[in-house]
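USER:
I would value a second opinion on how I read folds in token form. Give me a protein, with the fold worked out from its sequence. Write it directly below this note and I will take it from there.

ASSISTANT:
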Amino acid sequence: MNTGPVSPCPPCPPRVPVSPVSPVAPVSPVSPCVPCGPRVPRVPVSPVAPSYPQSLKAPPPEVRQLVSESQSPGPEEPPASGRHRQEDPGVLCVLLHNYTSQTEPCPSLRP
């Protein structure tokens, strides 16, 4: 391989290693340059939870905080304190469905 500055071809962008060479895109005999190969589009990293891989679909901190509050209410917030806490299970279920791949239906809200 000639890596000197005399090469007329631009350098290839960083490439993801591919095991076998794909026969789908043959090398064009007209161009003297070797094609760079398929480029993988860069997905922007979510700033919400940088410590989790995107495949896990981790819920944002506010959803996790709501879940922990509903599972263990503090002494200042007893379970039967007010009506505004009754809509939490349904809202949490919908929020969790958005961030996880659950298939079971949400429980219906009690009036």
About this structure: Residues 40 and 52 are 21 Å apart (CA to CA). The two ends are 74 Å apart (CA to CA). Residues 54-73+84-111 form one domain. DSSP finds two helices and no strands in the chain.
